[in-house]
Design a protein that fits this description.
Number of helices: 8
Largest sheet: 7 strands, mixed
Helix content: 10-25%
Radius of gyration: 24 Å
Number of strands: 31
Oligomer: single chain
CATH class of the largest domain: Alpha Beta
Shape: elongated
Strand order of the largest sheet: 7-6-3-8-12-9-13
Number of domains: 2
Length: 416
C-alpha cells in the first residue's frame, strides 16, 4: 500500500515517490559547483510601467497560455528528507495534479521551478515539462524570476501555480484565465474566503472594491488580520508586465524574502488593472504539514470514489474504502468496506471486491471475486474467485473460472 498521509519516512536508505528512486538524507540542492547561470538578485529595482492604458497586451481565444509551477520549497514543516511536492495524494505525487490542472486550463507550455531535492523532481518530470532551478530559496518572487530567461520572448498570459495544491482543477484555472482576459488585466488573483484565514496572505481592497495589495500573515497588522479573503498563491499575469515588476521586489518584510504577492501592490500603484476571482477554499488548499496532507488526501479519495460511483460502481462505505486516482473499474462492480485499490489496478464489470482486500496494480476480468486477500501485479481472468485469506504475489496469471482458496500463496505462476 502507498504510504498513508501520516506515515513517517526513513532517515536512511531509499524510497520511491511517484516511481522515482530517492536517496535519503537529501539536503539543499545547488550552491557551490552548480552549473546554473546566475540570475538577478532583485536588489536593483527597475522602473515600472502600467502598460497600455485600460487593456491587456493581447487577448482572444488563440492567445498563448504558459504555466509556471513553483515547486522549489523544502516544506520544512513536513519534517521530511523528500521534496514536499513528491509526497503522494491518492497514489500520485501531488504536483501531478497541478500539472493536469494547468493542461486542463489550456496551458500549452509548462515550466516547473525546482529547488530542494531538484534532481529527484526533475527525474519525475523529465521529457514532460521544462524545469529551471532556484539554487537559493529566497522567496516566491525570486523563484518565479528564475523562469525569466526561458520566457524572455513570451508575450502571452502566464499562469503562476503552486506545486502543493493538488485539489485545484482545470475548470477553476480556466475560469481564472477567462476572468483575467475579460477584465483586460495585468494581474488576476485567485482568492478564497476562509473561516479561519490563519497562515494565508490577506487580500486588501480599496473602498471601491479593487484589489490593491496582498499582505502576508506575518506582516499583517490590526484590521488586516481580520480579513477573511485570502490569497491562494495562484495568479494569471500578463507576462511582460509581470517580469517588469519582479525586478522591483525587495526583501523588506518579516521573512526577509522576495514575495511574489508584492507584485500585485506594485502593479496597482503603477495604475495597472488588477482583477480577482474567488474559489472554494477546498479547491485551493495548500499542504505544509502532515495534518494538511491527510486532510487533502481525504478530499481527493472522496473525489476518486465519487467518480467510480458515477461510472456505475457500487462503493458500500466510501469512508472505509481507499482507492488511488489511477484505478479504473467496470459497471456493476461492488467494492466492500476496508478495501484498498492501489496503483494502476483495473477491475472488469460485475466484480465483487472485499471486504478486507488489497489490490496493487492488479488486472481483473469480469465477474472476479476477491475477499480478505492480497493481489499484487497479477492478471486474473473472468470469473476467478480468490480467498478468503489468499496471497497472489507479482507475476501471476490466473485463468478463467479458477478458484484460489483459503491460505493459498502464489508467485510467478500460471494457473488454468
Amino acid at each position: 500500500m502507498a504510504p498513508c498521509a501520516g506515515e513517517g519516512l526513513p532517515a536512511r536508505g531509499t524510497r520511491r515517490f511517484g516511481g522515482v528512486r530517492l536517496e535519503a538524507g537529501v539536503e539543499r540542492i545547488g550552491g557551490a559547483g552548480s552549473n546554473e547561470p546566475p540570475t538577478s538578485d532583485l536588489r536593483h529595482p527597475t522602473s515600472i510601467s502600467a502598460g497600455p492604458a485600460g487593456g491587456s497586451w493581447g487577448e482572444g481565444p488563440d492567445m498563448p497560455l504558459t504555466a509556471v509551477v513553483l515547486a522549489a520549497g523544502q516544506g520544512t514543516r513536513m519534517k521530511s528528507a523528500w521534496p514536499k511536492v513528491l509526497h503522494t495524494v491518492a497514489g500520485r505525487p501531488m504536483i501531478e495534479y497541478v500539472l493536469d490542472a494547468a493542461r486542463g486550463a489550456g496551458a500549452d507550455r509548462i515550466v516547473v521551478v525546482t529547488g530542494f531535492g531538484a534532481p529527484h523532481l526533475e527525474a519525475l518530470l523529465a521529457g514532460r515539462v521544462e524545469t529551471v532551478r532556484q539554487e537559493e530559496q529566497l522567496g516566491t518572487g525570486h523563484a518565479l524570476l528564475q523562469s525569466e530567461a526561458l520566457l524572455a520572448d513570451y508575450t502571452g498570459d502566464l499562469l503562476v501555480l503552486c506545486g502543493d495544491t493538488p485539489l485545484v482543477t482545470g475548470g477553476l484555472l480556466a475560469r481564472l484565465v477567462a476572468t483575467h482576459r475579460a477584465n483586460r488585466a495585468a494581474a488576476t488573483v485567485l482568492t478564497a474566503e476562509m473561516a479561519d484565514p490563519t497562515g494565508y496572505g490577506r487580500v486588501i481592497r480599496d473602498a471601491g472594491g479593487d484589489v490593491v495589495r496582498i499582505v502576508e500573515q506575518k506582516d499583517a497588522r490590526g484590521a488586516e488580520l481580520a480579513v477573511r479573503e485570502v490569497n491562494s498563491g495562484m495568479y494569471c499575469f500578463d507576462a511582460r508586465r509581470l517580469f517588469g515588476v519582479l525586478h522591483a521586489l525587495t526583501a523588506d518584510n518579516a521573512q526577509g524574502e522576495y514575495y511574489l504577492p508584492d507584485c500585485i501592490r506594485l502593479l496597482a500603484e503603477a495604475g495597472a488593472r488588477v482583477a480577482a476571482t474567488a474559489a472554494d477554499g477546498e479547491e485551493v488548499a495548500g499542504i505544509n504539514t502532515r495534518v494538511q496532507l491527510a486532510r487533502v488526501e481525504a478530499v481527493m479519495r472522496r473525489r476518486v470514489v465519487e467518480r467510480l460511483m458515477e461510472e456505475g460502481v457500487t462503493v458500500c462505505d466510501p469512508s472505509s474504502t481507499f482507492v488511488d486516482a489511477g484505478v479504473q473499474a467496470g459497471p456493476d462492480t461492488v467494492i466492500y468496506p476496508f478495501t484498498f485499490l492501489e496503483g494502476r489496478t483495473r477491475l472488469g464489470a460485475g466484480c465483487r471486491i472485499g471486504p478486507g482486500a488489497r489490490l496493487v496494480d492488479a488486472r481483473l476480468g469480469d465477474g472476479v471475486e476477491v475477499q480478505y486477500a492480497v493481489v499484487m501485479d497479477s492478471t486474473l481472468a473472468g470469473g476467478v474467485r480468490v480467498g478468503p485469506v489468499a496471497y497472489i504475489r507479482p507475476g501471476c496469471t490466473i485463468g478463467e473460472g479458477v478458484k484460489v482458496g483459503d491460505f493459498v500463496e502464489l508467485k510467478k505462476s500460471e494457473i488454468g
